[in-house]
Design goal:
The termini are far apart. The protein is 43% helix and 26% strand. By secondary structure, it is of the alpha+beta class. The protein has one domain. It has a 5-stranded antiparallel beta sheet with strand order 1-2-3-4-5, covered by helices on one side.
């Protein structure tokens, strides 16, 4: 065996070919992982926004009746609220790239009218993954209206 001080041209070409083959097979995995991270971030952000709104409503509902909650949503939170049939209310708002839709529905049992189904929907309105939506639904008990 003779003592060599370097690599031949054939060895360099073979090493580059092996490297290229490995990169061609591995590189798409990096692209897919990056795309999955972006989609996951959009869903996590939307979920955070929905949870934040639900917590704000829950905290306000500890001390307020339903009509006051809707007024608070409009004046302090910047929502536009409209009545629906059966006494339900829907409140909407769009901020930057996030559209909120909050639905307040009374419990069907009149003796439990302080109990509501609150549905918070959040939709990302811009970007590559626009339209992805998170929906959280929860039962909440608000301070009952006196005499109601």
């Amino acid at each position: 065996m003779r003592n060599r001080k370097g690599m031949t041209l054939v060895e360099v070409i073979v090493a580059m070919a092996l490297f290229a083959i490995v990169m061609v097979t591995v590189f798409p995995a990096f692209l897919i992982t990056n795309m999955m991270n972006n989609v996951s971030k959009e869903f996590m952000d939307a979920n955070y926004y929905a949870q934040e709104e639900l917590e704000q409503i829950y905290n306000k509902g500890k001390t307020s009746t339903m009509p006051l909650i809707v007024t608070w949503m409009e004046t302090d939170r910047g929502f536009s609220c409209d009545p629906l049939t059966g006494g339900a209310e829907i409140c909407t708002k769009t901020v930057t790239n996030v559209a909120y839709e909050i639905l307040f529905e009374y419990h069907p049992d009149p003796t439990l009218y302080s109990l509501h189904v609150v549905t918070v929907k959040v939709e990302i309105t811009t970007g590559e993954y626009a339209g992805d939506r998170v929906e959280i639904e929860n039962f909440m008990r608000f301070v009952p209206v006196v005499g109601g």
